[in-house]
Amino acid sequence: MPPEDCAELARYWAESLAEWAIPDEILAKAPEPPWGLPPGLFTPPPEPADTPSRRVALAPLQAKPGGGSVLDIGAGGGAASFALVPPATRLTAVDQSPAMLRSFAERAAERGVEAVTVEGSWPDVAVSVDPADVVVCHNVLYNVADPVPFLTALTEHAELRVVIQITANHPRARLSPLWSRFWGITMPQRPRATDALDLVRAMGLPAESQSFTTARPPVENRSELVAFVRRQLCVGPERDGEIERWISENGFGERQAVCIWWDTGRIQRSRYELDDVPAVIQPDLPDDDQAPAVA
Questions:
Q1: What pLDDT, in 10s, does the model give residues 194-216?
Q2: Model pTM score
Q3: How far apart are CA 73 and CA 81, in angstroms?
Q4: Which class in CATH covers the domain with range 4-23+37-176+184-215+255-281?
């Protein structure tokens, strides 16, 4: 059992996420289910962005002869793990979406990378997944209502390091103005990345963090992005014009993100210390909707 403060932080995280549940009366009126991610919007860019999350994950792989392996939890199209090839030579992707995993496998084949895909929810499928040198988990934690088993399984599967990337605020926070406009509801302000960091540390994990600004690669199919946002908001295509204008005026590119990482103790950290990736703890992260607007 986790210590009392850890259990309390885990309860706070779960209760905070529960506040983001879409009301039943809105779900009943939704023309389409609001869940799921279109693979076309989550294709890894040809050139990975040089982010703290990537640098922190690259460091132990570059120090290991042969490049090593990466386990990508909630892999989606594989942006987090393909950004580590090379030096990584073997990737494992875990995701609930068969379509995403097919896209991942196709990208791996195109790039000549050894890859394994596992369909299912983490940590439910953890017993059938081999450990890897580095475990990455990008933009998943806000979907995890029971974080302690989730984080424990990440740690148990990492030979060298775990690297998590999440937005400073809940990823749906940027759509709060549209939820207010279309449905007259106010979205929550919690949880935040700082809450996740507090929880990881309360579990006894030696976590470090760095905040930064990340940008979504340009979207070639704007109508697909509009349709994705529309489904998230539980409205029909008659609202596409309003959504399109809102995206153009407010941007859907840059946002504040946080990299949280820790070593698993299986090697000496000094072997791959990075001078250009300091541990920066920022308790007062800017709100996500204050990130620079990009049309």
A1: 999 999 999 999 999 999 998 76
A2: 0.86
A3: 9
A4: alpha beta
